[in-house]
Known about the structure:
By secondary structure, the chain is mostly helical. The chain has one domain (2-284). 90% of the residues lie in helices and 0% in strands. The protein has nine helices and no strands.
Amino acid sequence: xxxxxxxxxxxxxxxxxxxxxxxxxxxxxxxxxxxxxxxxxxxxxxxxxxxxxxxxxxxxxxxxxxxxxxxxxxxxxxxxxxxxxxxxxxxxxxxxxxxxxxxxxxxxxxxxxxxxxxxxxxxxxxxxxxxxxxxxxxxxxxxxxxxxxxxxxxxxxxxxxxxxxxxxxxxxxxxxxxxxxxxxxxxxxxxxxxxxxxxxxxxxxxxxxxxxxxxxxxxxxxxxxxxxxxxxxxxxxxxxxxxxxxxxxxxxxxxxxxxxxxxxxxxxxxxxxxxxxxxxxxxxxxxxxxx
Length: 291
């Protein structure tokens, strides 16, 4: 048993000192953060385009005789959802940033040195009979397990979160982001069309040939068809925004809470478990009984 525990501790130390493990975890965390920032950028881009469209409507309403207000009525509730979505993505980005900070702290050299020192003391106690019966053995094991949790908990969380994303969420994320991007492009086309109409009206003057300009305006803008297409795009985008909100709430709220629960439970177990010296002494000196 002593040899087995010693080999186990040495393997743990080797894994702890591996830079590849930290580098891969950091790369996975950066990818998650980039996904959150892309979604946040989509939200802010949608909000900006909608604001421009609503601003353009105000300038063309006198010519459209109020018809263009129907576009604003479609966009207002959607814009409210987009603003809430942007807040969720901002929170998700901050949460992922905090997770990255914990990952950086877990890879610091002082933690690795402390883990090596605690493991070395534990191994010495394994092979020193006099020390096996002292309280130092129990203390050294608790300290080692505590440092072990500090060293690997954040790394374990990052790998688990990435596995869950690739196994369950990746398709939903890509599909939802694509639909939202296409909706943003559609709204930009509407904004460009409205801008060109307003520019044309300003160049010709609002009060010269109003009837002719009104007919041209209705023909070019084609409000009814535009609204029908816009409503379909907005409905699809709304569903996919909800999908993205769900994805990032899971990744940045639910899973971190599970990680926090796991971390606290592990610490409680380490310091509350019945790890007395007699049991450790028996474990270390246990031999096989031949029948």
